[in-house]
Task: inverse folding
């Protein structure tokens, strides 16, 4: 038996904090509205000259240290992001490879929005289980603040910047027991950045119309999220031959406390079995699950032998869940 395990985790968020009260000065909103609708109190915002790969680099160094490995020990670098340093190429993974000071190993980006980290776990697991690679760095990193329309109160209150990383290595017992990923492309336009790609390449018009910013229809995303979190988690449990009762700890995508609470109810979990840090960071997309996982591990909430479920959803629409024996 050869499985993958998470050998180390790390995370990083920019220092600069933007509170709900700061947002009250920017758009027609209130701390009360944001808190009751989302649970978010503040989020971190990267400085103008800070890129996604900078955040990814800091999180990766911490994950490598936690795993007791050096960058030279890595066989593959995967970066899940919706906010790459450059829109077409090079990939953020190649820039991260350079920052880590290694050369030669493959490095690529993965686009699955907020489900990106779980998609990354799914990909990395295949390489490890087949024996192709030993140590794989999977990073979720975002500077969403750079693609947010700061005049759109419907989206600007929700998102934040950050990064989380995990080093995956082989194990003979426990580890990543199952992963499931999925997508429903028919809903590709409910959460979208319309401009800047091959459909609507950059032009003055794109900028004038603000099509380079995140656009979201909150309600269909909300309904989808509530349904899919429970469904994906149950599917991953089934693949691992486990039941809902076996879950010790849930790390959900940190988008909205109401979505997390609804998923917890469907999975019959108590509040103390779920890690929530969205109040501090908002929705950091691909970074949200590894950022929460890192904090949960470091604060001692997850301990050896625990059954941990990671579950996410995002634009695409996409979803993914993973069951880990820690
Ligand atoms: N402050 C004050 N009022 C606001 C704000 C704001 N920041 N934003 C919207 N409103 C208003 C709306 O304009 C609307 O007013 P109207 O009724 O006069 O038109 C009113 O509040 C109610 O809006 P709803 O959309 O009905 O509010 P809802 O309860 O659905 O909450 C929310 C909105 C929080 C966005 C919710 O729909 C949600 O969380 N959706 C899921 C979003 C999500 O998870 N996205 C991330 C996906 S992951 C990824 O891939 C990035």
Result:
């Amino acid at each position: 038996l050869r499985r993958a395990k998470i050998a180390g985790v790390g995370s990083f968020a920019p220092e600069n904090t933007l509170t709900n009260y700061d947002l009250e000065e920017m758009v027609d909103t209130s701390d009360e509205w944001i808190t009751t609708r989302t649970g978010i109190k503040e989020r971190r915002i990267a400085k103008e000259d800070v890129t996604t790969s900078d955040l990814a680099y800091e999180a990766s160094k911490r994950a490598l240290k936690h795993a007791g490995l050096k960058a030279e020990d890595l066989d593959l670098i995967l970066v899940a992001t919706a906010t790459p340093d450059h829109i077409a190429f090079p990939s953020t993974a190649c820039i991260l490879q350079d920052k880590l000071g290694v050369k030669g190993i493959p490095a690529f980006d993965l686009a699955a929005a907020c489900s990106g980290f779980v998609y990354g776990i799914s990909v990395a697991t295949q390489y490890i289980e087949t024996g192709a690679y030993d140590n794989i760095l999977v990073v979720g990193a975002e500077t969403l603040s750079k693609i947010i329309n700061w005049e759109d109160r419907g989206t600007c209150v929700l998102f934040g910047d950050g990064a989380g990383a995990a080093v995956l290595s082989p194990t003979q017992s426990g580890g990543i027991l199952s992963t499931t990923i999925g997508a429903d492309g028919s809903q590709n336009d409910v959460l979208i950045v319309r401009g800047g790609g091959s459909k609507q390449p950059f032009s003055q018009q794109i900028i004038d119309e603000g099509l380079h910013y995140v656009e979201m229809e909150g309600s269909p995303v909300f309904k989808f999220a509530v349904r899919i979190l429970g469904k994906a988690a149950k599917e991953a449990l089934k693949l691992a031959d486990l039941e809902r009762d076996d879950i010790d700890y849930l790390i959900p995508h940190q988008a909205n406390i109401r979505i997390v609470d609804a998923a917890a109810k469907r999975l019959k979990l108590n509040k103390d079995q779920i890690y929530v840090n969205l109040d501090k960071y908002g929705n950091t997309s691909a970074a949200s699950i590894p950022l929460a996982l890192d904090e949960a591990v470091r604060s001692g909430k997850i301990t050896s032998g625990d059954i941990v479920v990671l579950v996410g959803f995002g634009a695409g629409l996409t979803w993914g869940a993973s069951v880990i024996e820690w």
Remarks:
- The CA atoms of residues 229 and 257 lie 13 Å apart.
- The pocket of acetyl coenzyme *A is lined by residues 29, 33-34, 37-38, 113-114, 153-154, 157, 191, 216, 218-219, 221-222, 225, 255-256, 283, 285, 314-315 (CB under 6 Å).
- The chain has a mean pLDDT of 97.
- Residues 218-239 form the longest helix (22 residues).
